[in-house]
Design goal:
A hairpin with a 4-residue loop joins strand 4 and strand 5. The strands form two sheets. The chain has a five-stranded mixed sheet with strand order 2-4-5-7-6, covered by helices on one side. The protein is 49% helix and 17% strand. The N and C termini lie far apart (59 Å). The chain is built from six helices and seven strands.
Length: 255
């Protein structure tokens, strides 16, 4: 029996995207072996090669994680498990986001920052899915395509209806306006993406699915300084029905 076309596309994308970082690791290990066998071991040469292998390994791990998430989202096997998070914890998590990507941005010579404005008193989200499947994917995507000397800025705020607004802005190559509506589909990348192994178009699909699961939306706008792109996310503070135990036990807080 011939597999469905979407399964063939999935397998083709998986094998293509795993091949490049795997080759990078193997080539790097060969270079390190040559250096060691030459009896002229120079740590200044080996350490950069190890960094290349490490980066490729992390790329593979991120890609595999995104592919597993994509498969689960596509089959409807991922459901939200929301918990109540007050604005103090939400602010702490936002600030920790900057620490998470600090070293990567520093190594790529990218100016990266996270600014936190007004937040609702609490949110009722599956915060792990929002963080890993949505926001982290958007930030990682920006850091991949911005060149050295560029900028990636994250702004977290909320509107009068307590919808949380998260903007991930960059000054990279951007996405043509005509293609913006389609980039959240599986396997899709912008036509001006000239870089070879940056993932198979899974990250934005996962981000969109996760945000939609939380009854939110995501739109694509122009980026920083007339360049790049902005992914603007809007998620209700309480997209799911609150359990009665939360309503009974919650102590009101002020922002």
């Amino acid at each position: 029996m011939t597999p469905p076309a979407d399964e063939i596309d999935f397998l083709a994308s998986v094998t293509h995207d795993l091949k490049s970082p795997l080759n990078a690791i193997l080539w790097t290990l060969d270079a390190i072996k040559l250096s060691i066998n030459s009896d002229n071991i120079d740590p200044a040469e080996i350490l950069p090669n190890l960094a290349i292998a490490e980066r490729a390994g992390k790329d593979m791990l991120e890609l595999v994680s995104n592919m597993i998430t994509t498969a689960r989202l596509q089959t409807g096997n991922v459901t939200a498990s929301p918990t109540l998070i007050d604005h103090h914890e939400l602010a702490d998590r936002a600030r920790n986001m900057e620490k998470t990507f600090h070293n990567e941005a520093l190594g790529k010579q990218i100016d990266f920052s996270v600014a936190v404005g007004r937040l609702p008193n609490f949110v009722y989200w599956d915060i792990q899915k929002i963080r890993f499947f949505a926001i982290n994917n958007l930030i990682s995507n920006a850091l991949k395509f911005v060149c050295a000397g560029g900028s990636v800025k994250v702004l977290i705020d909320c509107d009068e209806q307590d919808n949380v607004l998260i903007s991930v802005m960059d000054d990279g190559p951007g996405i043509p306006v005509s293609e913006r509506a389609g980039v959240f589909e599986r396997f899709v990348q912008a036509s001006n993406n000239a870089r070879s192994f940056q993932g198979g178009g899974f990250g934005l699909f996962n981000a969109h699915q996760t945000i939609t699961m939380h009854k939110g939306n995501i739109e694509i706008l122009d980026g920083l300084n007339g360049k790049g792109v902005t992914f603007r996310v809007c998620i209700p503070a309480v997209p799911f029905e609150l359990e009665s135990a939360y309503l009974f036990n919650r102590t009101p807080t002020t922002a």
